[in-house]
Amino acid sequence: MKHAFALVMMLGALSLPTHAALDVGDTAPNFTVPAALGGKTFQYTLAESLAKGPVVLYFFPAAFSEGCSIEAHEFAEAIGRYEALGATVIGVSGDDLDLISRFSVQVCQGKFPVAADEKKSVIKAFDAAMQTRPEYANRISYVIAPNGKVIYSYLSLNPSKHVEKTLDALAQWAKDNPRARLR
In this structure, which topology does domain 2-176 adopt according to CATH? Predict the structure, then answer.
């Protein structure tokens, strides 16, 4: 099963668009979705998080798959750096809430929430479905300013650069917006 999923992911990478679904300057669609943090479930709302500062929203294909576990672990390890920039992080996949709840404990280490978008409404709103396997979210990361505008997006099935690139974008935004309200 692992090998089949890896093959699907590699084949999907061959037909990826060259940019993320939302462009810099676009308004991010607001959403409310079931989520888990450290195994505790709650309703996550993008607007509520943006009221506190910038948000890094990242989509991932499947909890506990190799690439998604690597990416979530890297986000968890870097959470202090996001907090220093006044930002929060939320991961979103099409997995069910039980699986996401376990993933939030075991892989995300209870350091940031992950959301269960079983109906794919958030994935559709951000046009973040994988083209070749629309039942999976693509690996896309967005940095969203407190005003709801997308200030950076990065699309790559390779999980290794999402943290670095979103941190760089946040640092640049903070430098360019020194009066912006940070948490």
Answer: Glutaredoxin (3.40.30)
